[in-house]
Amino acid sequence: MFNTLLRIQQFFEALYRSFVSILRVLFRMRFSSGFNNIEAGGNEIFVLANGPSLRQDLDQYGSKLASCNTMGVNMFVLSDEFILLKPKYYVILDINFFIEKIILERVKEAQVEMLKAFKKNLNWEMILFIPVEAKNSFFHKQLAADNSSLKYVFFNRTNIEGLKSLRHCMYSKGWGMPPPQNVLIGALMMAIHTGFNKIYILGADHSWHEEIHVNQDRSFEITDKHFYNQAGKRLPKHHGESLNRIQIHEFFEELARTFRSHNMLEEFARSKNIEILNASSVSYIDAYKKINIKDITWDQLFDK
Question: Please, what are the domains in the chain?
Answer without folding.
Answer: 2-300 (3.90.1480)
